[in-house]
Amino acid sequence: MKRTLLKASVLAMMLGGLLGWSQAYGQSDPSGKKPVTSTYAITNATVFANASSSGSKATVLIKDGVIKAIGSNISLPAEAQQIKGDSLFIYPGFIDGASRAGITRPEDPKRPDNFVSSNPPDEIAGITPWRNALDQFSIQSSQVDELRKAGFTLAQILPEGGMIAGKSAIVVLGDENSTNLLKENTGLAASLQGSRGMYPGTAVGVMAKFRDVYKNTELTQDRIAKFTSSTGVSRPEMNATYLGMSDVVDGKVPVIFTVGNDLEVRRAISLQQELGFKLVLTGLEEYDAVIDLIKSTRTPVLIKLEVPDDKAIKAQKEEVSEDVKAQYERVKEAYDRAIAQAGKLEKAGVPFAFTTLGVKVSEVSKAMTNMMEAGLSKEAALAALTTNAAAILGIERIAGTLDNGKMANMVISTGPIFEEDSQIKHVIVDGKIYDYEVSKKKNGKDKGEAVDPSGNWNYTSETPAGSSGGNFTIEKSEGDFSGEITYDDPQGGGETSSSLQDIEVSGNKLSFRFGVNAGGMALDVKVSGDINGDTMNGNMVIADFGSFTITANRTPSQIAKK
Amino acid sequence: MKKINYILTALLGLSMQFAFAQTPKGSVLIKNATVLTVTNGTLENTDVLVQDGLIKRIAPDISAPKGVETIDATGKYVMPGIIDAHSHVALDVVNEATNPIVAEVRMKDVVNPYEIGIYRALAGGVTISHAMHGSANVIGGQNATLKHRWGSTDPADIIMQDAPRTIKFALGENPTRVHGRGNGIQPRSRMGVEAILRNGFSEALQYKKAWESFEATKNEKGSTAVAPQYNERLQTLVDILDGKIIIHCHSYRADEIYMLINVARDFGIKKLVFQHTNEGFKVAPEIAEYTMGASVFADWWAYKFEVYYSTAFNAAILQKNGALTSINSDSAELIRHLYHEAGKTQRYGGLTDDEALAMITINPAKQLGIDDKVGSLEEGKQADIAIFEGHPLSTYAVPQMTFVDGVKYFDITKDKDDQRQRISATETVEPIYLGHENHRCMQDTEHLFETANALFHTQH
After folding, report:
1. Nearest residue on chain B to A237, judged by CA atoms?
2. Does A304 map to a domain?
3. H helical segments located in A415-501
4. Chain B residues with beta carbon closer than 8 angstroms to that of A227
């Protein structure tokens, strides 16, 4: 509650103002929200109907959220709104295998008076298999916007929580007025994460507790069966934990285990082999040592859609001793090994998909590019985002490819997807079209030649709470940038300012950070954007609150531009 | 069916581990060495032939079978791989400190084969370590006996799968600090520790009885019996009572040592080893008569109140009283020179070479229940071998090569400098430090219950 209040107040004060709808009202619909038609045709586009398609010119007709026809000679109904697709590339909508976009952590339950940390109630200890991700999900979250903007149209959402967090669900990232539910109770989210300061507190305790919960669920089912079929049997104790675990024990839904490295992969698989449940692994970051194991156990895996940052490599110095050079070399090897893993998984023939859980969605495209440079084929990359994900989630009948009768979920880009200059222009979710601005000037030749961001900039930022703005200045002296930004003081009382940190320019990309003091809490704000001449378009990430668009214009100044 | 299986496995005391992996087995002929067999004296100018991971022959003038590599060990000493009966190397988690009894947790679940400490131990001639749960609980988790097969990525490959189960117990200040002073529950005192033990075992007996009566009546016609609650914590205590698990108990004071001997006798428990045991010299005859002995430090004490009454003669006194005695490290640093630690028993107690070497080889092997497989150089045993320049009990000893199952995992002349298996891609490499972060018995427990800082800083 405190957090939500803070969030609201920070946003309201810092970025204060009112959001005005700029869209024209529909004549027959005073709310202006109802589209004129639900039939669309994207004409003469380059269509990639599935992950291995090489693309062919076609028109795609969709109606009421379903693909009606794909072809070159289809007759378009009169109500079809046409989008000229001559220069556009259409792909099946991406599917996020596991996500917490739009999920809010439920409030911690109150500790009972007789609380003993060595034997806490399940709910406090993070054992909540009865919880449901849908109860924690909001389609209106900016995280959902961000995910959709990156091309994702469907996601399996996992609830927040501890070692057994609760039931996942599959949703479309669609209309604000819909529940967007596709399938509920698709799995049970679990992890090796212990509870702070109580039992089970560590991975070794979690594994023991998991066995305990699982085996006692089985025994509870046996008791219930006996109670139901015979007389004279004592009433079985049925609690929420065992009831919540039942579908897993019955093999109806998988446990979706979040694991980071190969050792955790082995731990989850050893539990699975010991107890016999269905398993899906998610969040894998370091897994090249267990590719054979993943393959031989046929465990479905959702790889974290992220690559390690290369800051440590960039920070390596030139003039160093042989010893240090050898150590540097090993860091480089580790980096190369990390980004090559997805390609190795492909070569081993493992049909993997991705998760964006814990991932910076704005860097998804960069991660894809890095993985592909390190050996992942474009087909496998696309399959991971579409068909493989659909298969792992059990929705391949309705999603994953562009075919007649499938859901109208697609990504439409200005060039072949994942190529450097391609940008996503539209994302269609469940038949609803989302438009995104594409920046005009973006060609490879400019890369490497950094623009000069020096000057005074006026900026405005759009958030769900409204728009706000201020100025920032950037000065360049001896190759280093420095600067300052003004903004509405979250503590109230007008404007205040902070100095800019980590100002970096690469090509036409500018990024910097600054700190904001909001009621004693230090917030980290990251800004990045593309500069075209004297305008900048980008986004602003405020701590954990989300990402918001920012636009800025350079104003003539005698101070900064010496 | 599955259910019946696991109940059976639990009752039979079998633990379902990873499928047995085929670990590497090597062949080698070590020529012309001074062979310290430990159990069969010292043999000059002798060869040791290893085939497929086992010691095939120990004799002079063995000729190498075809394809078997020969190592000239003229002037060098060959001894059994050193065994450390108390270590926390290669564990991702040491303490599940949250309950006074956590017998259900298994250190085998959190073995980390990438930890560099394994290689450092090999560089000190150590081939086997006993990776123990910490000492925050009266009854801690089940330990893992590790074979140092450095380079494996699968934890199952470094777990000694044919070693018996062992479990950690702890008496005295650590469990009373964490649970009593830190969390306001029993045990607050040594009396409370005893109560936890006795109550635990009594409850385990009831648990065993409940399952036995269910198993006996469930198939009777018209039976209304339903299965009791499953509880791996109590089941593990049942396994201890049934003699399937060896207790390794952290202890310092004579009174608490004698207390546990009495508890064990009352419950018919025979498989019991004391760890640290600094006041063991006061109750050496009792330890000798009723237990599988003590595993001690050579000369390490005074790091907290209960460890002040100590002597470097402890190991020798225990040994002379007939108690099976070993010397351990409990430290990622000490583990690299356990041969020095064993040598101290000659300075303080005048033990013979064989007696001193037994403290780090066959004696810990007996305490871990693996002496039929390792711990001495005997034909038929597993070929865990260390080659030294200089006698291992000499101050000038330098380990040269270390073999596990006949496979060489350490070679002082040939190994590359940087032996780390896993490197972070996102961190600039920092220098590697030895020292300090050595004692993990109480790792992660300091802030567990946000206890006011303990009075004593060192917490072994």
Report:
1. B229
2. yes
3. none
4. 226
> Has residue A236 been placed in a domain?
no
Interface predicted TM-score (ipTM): 0.91
The CATH number corresponding to B82-217+231-375+435-447 among 3.40.50.1580, 3.20.20.140, 3.20.20.70, 3.50.50.60 equals 3.20.20.140
- Identify whether A129 is part of a domain: yes
CB pairs under 8 A between A and B: 153
Which two tokens mark B205? Answer: 């007996």
Distance (Å, rounded) from C-alpha B363 to C-alpha B85?
9
Residue B442 confidence class, pLDDT cut points 50, 70, 90: confident
The domain that holds A459 is classified in CATH as 2.40.128.120
Task: Write the residue in A218, A236, A276 that is nearest to B226 by C-beta.
Answer: A236
- Mutation for A interface: B93, B157, B181, B211, most A CBs within 10 A: B93
Which of B226, B419, B420 to probe the A interface (max A CBs under 10 A)?
B226
| Whether residues A328 and A411 fall in one domain | no
Chain B CB contacts of A291 below 8 Å: none
> Per the domain annotation, does A233 fall within a domain?
no
Closest CA to A362 of A178, A521, A550, A176: A550
Write down which residue in A430, A452, A487 finishes a domain: A430
A438-to-A40, B55, B234 alpha-carbon distances in Å: 21, 72, 64
Question: Which among A195, A263, A316, A336 is the top mutation candidate for probing chain B, defined by the most B β-carbons within 10 Å of its own β-carbon?
Answer: A263
Alpha-carbon distance B260 to B245, whole Å? Answer: 16
- Bridge partners of residue A176, in order along the sequence: none
Q: Which residue in chain A is spatially nearest to B417 when comparing CA positions?
A: A323
Cα nearest neighbour of B186 on chain A: A118
The pLDDT tens digits for A388-424 are 999 999 999 999 999 999 999 999 999 999 888 899 9
For B229-255, what is each residue's pLDDT tens digit?
999 999 999 999 999 999 999 999 999
Record the tokens describing residue B295, joined without a space: 């595993």
